[in-house]
Each structure stands twice: as structure tokens, then as C-alpha cells.
Recover the amino acids of this structure.
């Protein structure tokens, strides 16, 4: 049974009513087709009004939808062959981070992603997609392997954040993410990342330094979760909706800021409604990004990647030669 | 000689914050040590670079005080003072918050950056200041850091960054997060050019700053007792539903767990940095050549 989100409730109720009428028609032999048609038209309009203009908080809920495909779902669907590779060669294999080599449209690529579970049991095993340092170190190992064999890297981001646990801190969660940032900045192969669901803070960025950033239409990407922001701002974690409205975290916001390069369209109502369509849209987006990046030489590629991040920032630069606190330096 | 270090002629330099540092010593002649409770005369505290002579507790330091204590006297030249905080998300009350932080700290952002020398060795330096919105990293912090690192790479000299930060500047949203990548990219180029970067974590260094430039040094250093971590202590305790030991996330804890090269007492920091700079210069001398003597 499909999971319904709170704002989908009126639509779900209407669909239940339509089903009842249909059953009534069958069982009692009374023709209700006119009523059914009316309600179906109504349902269509209602769906349009709900999904055409989703609010940030609704997008957050869709982004966290338990039936949204996971990294492995996308990877296996996109690649004819995929070999999963495990472990950071140091501490353990982190099930919240997956990766390996696949053939994407006939071409070998390295694919890495944060991995959520499919059900409660799987989620406990996957730590709800929140990686430990060894997860980020496994990701880096696979990226360096990709560099060695000169194959592009695709990363899939869907995490509430890096895991805030005692062991994670002891083993250097900060250092692990920091290392990925500095290494990805100089990785000598094309890197394309996609935010498929939740882009949660530093834990997302730890896979997110790329030549191009793709983002699904209803995904979100934020420096802090809306709930945590609300807890800090208004001392009330239940005000996530208000925080989501304030923080500009949707794909559309990030595209407008020039941070996200391409929005990947979702099937009506979200990727969980039609996986095949979502996979096909994502595959096309990856292929197009690779075409753009393949056309560049290595130096140009790294220059472009540097410039992409270098120009991100919002500040005012006083144009006059004499800043506020300054005096002319004596020519000596 | 100073001029030779700047390939592009820079017309203006700001007044060294050193000049104002003396005025910012807290009023009153007495301070109580937060750890051992000893009463310390302000004069005594200053003499010990704001550390307790009895228990070694490190009091917090402002960026101007830090620059004063670290660089050769009169050597600091501030850059990029003309960058002012934006408000990309039109975040409620953010401009007012920034204005308040400015008035309270006397700084215009959470970092002061520029050029100076330690024992004659040239370097670029950036020092964060916790008083400015908890030393959080917004676009100006990221931009000043990126420019500082780029200048250091261009001029072929080392960079030292002193961190103290609550992490990201929430009010700048995704722009804040992306500063981590921006500064990392600049440090990548600095490293590729074979240049030295020293990160010094001071109390506290957390969140996105720990997950980027605080942990990317050729040397990662820290002051004794500094709290350094990615996630906050309370978040971890609520996640694992148990109390963490007192020493969790201290500099000494990180040293023991292999995350730091050394924990250096503030009184030893300047000579320590001078030694490291000497070991990374051509002949152990400032500018790689012997000065006349
Ligand atoms: Zn004391």
C-alpha cells in the first residue's frame, strides 16, 4: 500500500470514494458511471492543484518519501552491469554508503551514493542513510580508483546528514568529510553528482564537490535540516514548515542561485510514482552532463570545477578605493 | 622589502588591529579562572597570553588579540576589509543580527585576514572570532579565506588559519555550506603548488569548519582543552542516549585518536610556528636566504 503524505489526504480520500462508487456499480448493478466520471475529473483537478505548485515543506516530505528509490535502485536500473565494491580498507564496510563500478550506456563509470533502507530492518542496517567516517573514506577510495582507471564518477546524495554518533566523532567524521572535499576538488576525472532526495548539510557535501550538480525536482539541499533550524531559531522543532519556507532549499531555489546546474524532472507527484520514468530522466541528465564534460581537456575541466565553487558567495564589495577602516599605505 | 612580496601593487593597507587590541581587554582588574577558580590579575593574564598560570586554562581570544600574540609586532597588513555581509535569503532579522555583532565585536565579520611575519618568516594568516555570530561561516568568511589562500599560493608563502566556530552561518543557507567547498578548492591548489598550510583549532571548532579547512592542514594543531568536533555534544548525547565522558572532543582526545599532529600551549604557539615555518623554507631562513649579519 502506498504511503500517503499529509497534504495528499484530500486526494486519497477522493480516490477511496471513487473506488467505493465503482464497487457499488459492480456489486449492485446500479450505473454510477456519471458520478464516477465527475469525481475523477475532480480528482484530476485536485491532483493538479496539489502537485503543480508544491510548497517547500511538501517537497521535503516528498524528498523523504519512504518509497522513493534509493541509490542502489537508481544505480542498478541505470547500469546494465554493476559490481558493488565494499570497505574503506581501514575500519569496516559502511552499509550507509554504497559504491562500485557499472557500465553506463556501455561505458565504465564509478557510482557512489548514500544508501537508505527499504524498510525498518533495512534502515537499521543502513543507519537510515547516515554514513560514518568509514563511509566517506570508502567513497574516497572508490573515487581514487576511478581516477586511476580514468572513468567518470557519479555520486548519489540522499541523506539527512553524516551520522552524529560517538564512534563517528572518535574516528574523525569532520576529517573524513574535509578530506573528501579537498580531494574531490582536484579529482582528475569528470564528477557529476545528483541530489535524489535529501541533501543534508556536510554529510551531503562530502559527496557533492562535482563538475555538475543535478537535483531532482522535489529534492532539497540545505545547510541544516528544517527541524534543526526551527529548533535553533524558534526553540521549536515542530516549526519545520516555517524554516523550510525561509531557507530556500528547493531545487528551484538552488538553480536560481546558480549552484545547481540542472533540475531533473520528476514524474507527476514524485519519483516514487513512476520509477522507470525517473530513472530514464536521470540517465539522460547524466549522459548530457558527461557530453559537456568530455568535450573539455583535463586542465579546462579542473579550471571549470574550481570556478564553479569559487564564484559561490553573496557579499557586498565596497567599490571605492578607500575602505572604511583604511589609510593610504606609505610608499617606502 | 615588504613591497617585494606583493606582485600586484596594493595601494592601501588597513590599520593593524594590534593598535586597538589593548583597548579590548575586559574591564576590571580581576578575572576568575573558569577551570580552577583562581583569581587572576588582568596584568598577569595578559602576560600569560590569556592562559591561567595555575591550571593552564586557555581563555578565549579575539581575532585582534590572536594576531597580536602570533605575528611579529607591526607586521600585520589586513586585506579584504571592504567585503561586507550580504543577505542572500532575505532571512528574518539577519541584517540586524549582523549589525549587532559588528557593534559588539568592533569587527565587520567573523574573520580577520591578511599578511604578516612570524620570526621574520612571511605568511598569510586568517583568524576567526567567536564573538561575531559564534564565529559562523558565511560568504564573507569563505571569500576572505579563499582570497587569503589564493594570495599565499600566488606569492608562494604558507597559510595559517586559526579556527573558532560554531559551524555554518545558518542565515546564509546553502551559500554557507558551499563556502566549505570553495575554501577546500583553494587549499587543494595551494597543496598542488607544494605550499604549506597549518590549521590551528581553538575553542570551540565545530560543524562545517571542522568538516573542511580545520582538518585539511599539512599540520593540524590545536590549543589545549579546545573542543573540536563535527556534531555538537548535545546532539550526540541525544542520538546515542547516553552521557559522553568529559574529555570527549577535546584537543587531547583528538590527538589520542590520531586527528591532530600536536596540541600546542598558547605560550609556545609562536615559537612552534616559527620552527615549522623554518623547516618549510628553503634554508631555514626567512625568504630562503641569509640576511646580512
Ligand atoms: Zn586556572
Amino acid at each position: 500500500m502506498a504511503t500517503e503524505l499529509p497534504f495528499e489526504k484530500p486526494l486519497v480520500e477522493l480516490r477511496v470514494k471513487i473506488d467505493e462508487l465503482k464497487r457499488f456499480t459492480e456489486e449492485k448493478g446500479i450505473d454510477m458511471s456519471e458520478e464516477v466520471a465527475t469525481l475523477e475529473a475532480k480528482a484530476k483537478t485536485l491532483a493538479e492543484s496539489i502537485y503543480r505548485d508544491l510548497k517547500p515543506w511538501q517537497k521535503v516530505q516528498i524528498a523523504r518519501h519512504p518509497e522513493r528509490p534509493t541509490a542502489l535502485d537508481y544505480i542498478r536500473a541505470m547500469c546494465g552491469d554493476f559490481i558493488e565494491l565494499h570497505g574503506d580498507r581501514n575500519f569496516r564496510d559502511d552499509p550507509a554508503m554504497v559504491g562500485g563500478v557499472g557500465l553506463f550506456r556501455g561505458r565504465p563509470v564509478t557510482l557512489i551514493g548514500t544508501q537508505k533502507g527499504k524498510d525498518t530492518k533495512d534502515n537499521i542496517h543502513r543507519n537510515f542513510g547516515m554514513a560514518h567516517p568509514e563511509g566517506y573514506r570508502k567513497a574516497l577510495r572508490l573515487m581514487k580508483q576511478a581516477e586511476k582507471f580514468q572513468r567518470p564518477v557519479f555520486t548519489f546524495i540522499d541523506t539527512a546528514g553524516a551520522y552524529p554518533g560517538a564512534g563517528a566523532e572518535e574516528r574523525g567524521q569532520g576529517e573524513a568529510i574535509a578530506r573528501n572535499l579537498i580531494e574531490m576538488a582536484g579529482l582528475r576525472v569528470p564528477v557529476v553528482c545528483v541530489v535524489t532526495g535529501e541533501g543534508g548539510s556536510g554529510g551531503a557535501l562530502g559527496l557533492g564537490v562535482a563538475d555538475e550538480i543535478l537535483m531532482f525536482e522535489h529534492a532539497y539541499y540545505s545547510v541544516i535540516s528544517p527541524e534543526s533550524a526551527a529548533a535553533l531559531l524558534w526553540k521549536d522543532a515542530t516549526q519545520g514548515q516555517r524554516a523550510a519556507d525561509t531557507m530556500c532549499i528547493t531545487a528551484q531555489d538552488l538553480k536560481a542561485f546558480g549552484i545547481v546546474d540542472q533540475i531533473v524532472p520528476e514524474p507527476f507527484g514524485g519519483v516514487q510514482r513512476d520509477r522507470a520514468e525517473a530513472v530514464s530522466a536521470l540517465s539522460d541528465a547524466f549522459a548530457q552532463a558527461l557530453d559537456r564534460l568530455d568535450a573539455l581537456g583535463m586542465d579546462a575541466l579542473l579550471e571549470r570545477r574550481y570556478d564553479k565553487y569559487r564564484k559561490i558567495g553573496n557579499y557586498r564589495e565596497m567599490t571605492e578605493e578607500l575602505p572604511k577602516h583604511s589609510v593610504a599605505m606609505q610608499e617606502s | 622589502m615588504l613591497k617585494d612580496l606583493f606582485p600586484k601593487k596594493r595601494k592601501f593597507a588597513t590599520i593593524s588591529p594590534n593598535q586597538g587590541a589593548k583597548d579590548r581587554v575586559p574591564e576590571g582588574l580581576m578575572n576568575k579562572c573558569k577551570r580552577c577558580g583562581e583569581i587572576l590579575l588582568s596584568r598577569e593574564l595578559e602576560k600569560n597570553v590569556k592562559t591561567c598560570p595555575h591550571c593552564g586554562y586557555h581563555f578565549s581570544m579575539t581575532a585582534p588579540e590572536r594576531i597580536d600574540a602570533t605575528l611579529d609586532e607591526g607586521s600585520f597588513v589586513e586585506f579584504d576589509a571592504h567585503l561586507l555581509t550580504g543577505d542572500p535569503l532575505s532571512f528574518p532579522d539577519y541584517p540586524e543580527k549582523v549589525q549587532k555583532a559588528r557593534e559588539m565585536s568592533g569587527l565587520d565579520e567573523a574573520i580577520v585576514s591578511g599578511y604578516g611575519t612570524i620570526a621574520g618568516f612571511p605568511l598569510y594568516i586568517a583568524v576567526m572570532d567567536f564573538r561575531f555570530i559564534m564565529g559562523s561561516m558565511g560568504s564573507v568568511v569563505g571569500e576572505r579565506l579563499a582570497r587569503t589562500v589564493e594570495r599565499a599560493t600566488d606569492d608562494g608563502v604558507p597559510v595559517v588559519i586559526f579556527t573558532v566556530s560554531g559551524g555554518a552561518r545558518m542565515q546564509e543557507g546553502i551559500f554557507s555550506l558551499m563556502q566549505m567547498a570553495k575554501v577546500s578548492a583553494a587549499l587543494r591548489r595551494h597543496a598542488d603548488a607544494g605550499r604549506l598550510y597549518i590549521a590551528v583549532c581553538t575553542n570551540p571548532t565545530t560543524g562545517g569548519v571542522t568538516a573542511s579547512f580545520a582538518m585539511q592542514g599539512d599540520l593540524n594543531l590545536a590549543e589545549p582543552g579546545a573542543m573540536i568536533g563535527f556534531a555538537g555534544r548535545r546532539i550526540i548525547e541525544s542520538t546515542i542516549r547516553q552521557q559522553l565522558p568529559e574529555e570527549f572532543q577535546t584537543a587531547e582526545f583528538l590527538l589520542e585518536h590520531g586527528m591532530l599532529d600536536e596540541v600546542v600551549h598558547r605560550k609556545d604557539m609562536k615559537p612552534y610556528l616559527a620552527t615549522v615555518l623554518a623547516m618549510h623554507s628553503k634554508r631555514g631562513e626567512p625568504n630562503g636566504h641569509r640576511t646580512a649579519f
